[in-house]
Design brief:
single chain; about 325 residues; alpha/beta; eight-stranded parallel beta barrel; 13 helices; about 10% strand
Length: about 325
């Protein structure tokens, strides 16, 4: 079951990631430098305003692969430091094209007290089959053997089309610290078979396509990692709560409401840049522009997104305006 009752402790390194997880944004100044000064506010906002106590740091939303190794380490340290006694789980993405860099990041995550690490498939010189990919992941995991290890499956960006179901077959024999995967793909057949064929292994099945989360819950997702949980965490938790009490009609209405917003912004052009703009708008915390080659979201996008959020009463969820949830209840 997708649990909403999470421990307040960050002390157990073996606890699997579950529940709602915000894929964190990396705040930047107008000059493209990381704005570490707002991460403390960011932690408080997620916990107090969105009810989200788990984070996935330096992933796609966090522009992890656009940061230097030094910057990635500093960002990870800041989240662990500011999240202490506030966040339940802090998982650091340590994937890189270089095995040595990925191992360095994994070791660093263990040293600073992170709760887990995740790795994407190398996407320039690509692994061509399951065994080659597992050999790469095994070497990274071995650099931090005490940390729970998660595979970050995102084939649309990596171009690595090895099915997650195939990868999971026997993976724990090769990687003892393996505890699950972040599944960021729309292939629900592959996801469903990951769950179905591994029922006895107690893996964490973390779904990464926010607009399809309800379908994944029905198939057995144990958690969700996504960018929209930064600012739609409360709304998504309403869907989770409805699902857990078996009020599937209400859960579906909440999912449809979330889909209306995502469908709207996707048509405008939606990615990391636009996520930063929306989070700045909703939270009041300056996330700044993205790093090149991404371009800053246009003012027109931000205005249109704001109007749509207001029409759906999503802004009332974050106490930015008065109102109720009738539009999406």
């Amino acid at each position: 079951m997708f649990s909403r009752h999470l421990s307040n402790s960050m002390a157990s390194p073996k606890k699997k990631l579950q529940g709602l997880v915000a894929a964190t944004i990396t705040p930047m100044t107008e000059h493209g430098e990381i704005n570490f000064s707002v991460i403390g506010r960011y932690v408080d906002y997620l916990v107090e305003e969105q009810g989200v106590k788990n984070v996935f740091v330096n992933g796609t939303t966090g522009e992890g692969l656009s940061l230097s190794i030094s910057e990635r380490c500093q960002v990870a340290e800041e989240w662990v430091t500011k999240g202490k006694n506030k966040l339940d789980q802090i998982v650091i993405h340590v994937g890189a094209l270089s095995l040595k860099e990925s191992q360095e990041l994994a070791q660093h995550a263990a040293e600073i007290g992170a709760d887990g690490i995740a790795v994407i498939a190398p996407f320039f010189l690509k692994p061509w089959n399951k065994d080659v990919l597992i050999n790469f992941l095994k070497e990274v995991a071995a650099a931090a053997p005490a940390l729970p290890f998660y595979y970050y499956h995102i084939p649309a960006l990596t171009g690595v089309k090895i099915r997650a179901e195939e990868l999971l077959d026997g993976i724990q024999d090769k990687i003892p610290s393996f505890q699950g995967l972040k599944f960021s793909d729309t292939d629900l057949l592959d996801f469903g078979q990951c769950v179905d064929q591994n029922r006895q292994r107690q893996f964490a099945f973390l779904f990464g396509v926010d607009e399809q989360l309800l379908s994944a819950l029905v198939m057995g997702a144990t958690g969700a990692v996504g960018s929209t949980y930064n600012y739609l965490g409360k709304k998504t938790k309403q869907m989770l709560e409805a699902f857990e009490r078996k009020d599937f009609s209400s859960a579906l209405n909440h999912q449809f409401c979330i889909q209306r917003f995502i469908n709207f912004v996707v048509k405008l052009g939606f990615g990391v840049s636009q996520t930063k703009a929306i989070m700045t708008l909703v939270s009041g915390i300056p996330m700044g522009p993205p790093r090149l080659p991404l371009q800053k979201a246009s003012r027109e996008f931000t205005d249109n997104a704001e109007a749509k959020l207001k029409s759906l009463d999503f802004l009332s969820c974050t106490d930015l305006k008065d109102g109720n949830m009738e539009a999406c209840s």
